[in-house]
Amino acid sequence: MVLLKVRGVLELVEFHGLEVLVVESPANVTYLTGLPRSSGTVLLVWRDGRVLALTPALDYWRVLNYVKGVEVLPYATYSLPDFEVTLVEPPHTYIPKLLKSEGVSRVGSDSPYTRVSAEVGKALDVEVRDFSEVLADLRAVKTPEELELMRRALAITEKAVEEVLGEVRVGTTERTIAALVEYRIKLGGAEGLAFESIVASGPNSSYPHATVTDRVIGGGEPVTIDVGARFREYCSDLTRTVLVGPAPAEVRRVLELVAEAVDEATDAVKEGVTSEEVDTRAREVIRRAGLGRYFIHSLGHGVGVEVHEKPRLAQGSKEVLREGMVVTIEPGVYIPGRFGVRIENMVLVTKTRGEILNRLSKIV
After folding, report:
1. Is residue 362, in this structure, part of any structural domain at all?
2. Which residues contact 150 (CB under 8 A, 6 or more apart)?
3. Structural contact between residues 203 and 338, judged by C-beta atoms closer than 8 angstroms
4. Rounded CA gap, 345 and 356, in Å?
5. In degrees to the nearest 10, what's the CA dihedral of 98, 5, 195, 247?
6. Which residue, 160, 165, 171, 235, has fewest beta-carbon neighbours within 10 Å?
7. Residue 171 and residue 128 share a domain
8. What confidence score (pLDDT) does residue 2 get?
């Protein structure tokens, strides 16, 4: 899988007329190598197919174990006289000297405003080309192998949420529910969490980006659970809103409305439609119910090595969906000081439809 991804990058490097690409973003390093927590590792990808990884000395043996088919050189910013492998200078000095010695003049970088790229530009007297969007576009379309890892991450997440649903009851705290879900996610085989979990009850659920608190859950309240697993460095993202005991008719109505908006947007997903079109389909459902002013964020986003990737499903976005993208569909209604409801699925873009990756019911 690593070689396949590097080949894809090489094709883009050649297409854009570059001689070498500097890769510093931790997410991009992970994407290309499978290395968890890149920890200061920088990649050089040459047009001729050579790939060099510069990695901190303290991480050298781990990187050697994870990264295959790549030359690995350790560096240190402090003295290590007894290190058993020859150390090179840190990337911001080593890379400019190396590229200058090779007569390189056309360089791209996924992090063009960092110290490494700045020093490369000075040493070569060239403008380092911003390649970040090119890599973001490449990452947006998932390979079958990537998709399988994301399915696994989502399955772990859904199983964890299902196992904890019985604990979402009157008298339990938000923090307890978050801890139980996170424990189940890790016990289920995930390396870790895809993002900081949200468990928000009652009026706290009216905050789209609520933080977990010690609030005690009351009867008839909605509890929004937004969690995700990271499996072999690929993320999942899931939201369900749980009603604790008999809930007011208004809350139940909003929950059903948001579920309808999820279905409507999912029906719009297929290759060739714009992100804005999908967002509009969900937004119209909520607007017709007179609650449009309470849907205060964009509809969704891509998911992959990072939980937020291209494309962004939002008003004004002209990004065109492509087969192989995985996006979230997560409309919500948030009535300040009272309650909020959000439901989130992950959807695979195919040529003719959106394939729902979730198996957990929208209303649990």
Report:
1. no
2. 142, 231, 234, 235, 236, 303, 304, 326, 346, 357
3. yes
4. 7
5. 160
6. 171
7. no
8. 43
What the block records as the tokens of 243 is: 């009603």
Residues in a beta bridge with 347: 327, 356
Residue 355 and residue 308 in contact, taking contact as beta carbons nearer than 8 Å: no
> Which pLDDT belongs to residue 4?
59
Q: For residue 306, which of 235, 238, 237 has the smallest C-alpha distance?
A: 235
Does the pLDDT value for residue 142 go beyond 70?
Answer: yes
**Bridge partner list, 43:** 23, 53
pTM of the model: 0.95
Judgement on whether residues 51 and 81 belong to the same structural domain of the protein = yes
Identify whether residues 179 and 269 lie together within a single domain.
Answer: yes
Give the domain-ending residue among 138, 161, 176.
Answer: 138
Please indicate, yes or no, whether residues 155 and 99 belong to a single structural domain of this protein: no
Residue 103 belongs to a domain with what CATH number? Answer: 3.40.350.10
Q: How confident is the prediction for the chain on average, in pLDDT? A: 96
Distance, CA of 199 to CA of 195 (rounded, Å): 13
Contact 108, 17 (CB under 8 A): no
What is d(CA 293, CA 69) in angstroms, rounded to the nearest whole number? 53
Q: Which of 35, 303, 4, 2 is nearest to 191 (CA)?
A: 35
Non-local (6+) Cβ contacts of 252 within 8 A are 243
Cβ atoms within 10 Å, residue 172: 18
Residue 186's domain comprises 141-356
Residue 59 DSSP code: G
Last residue of a domain, one of 71, 106, 138: 138
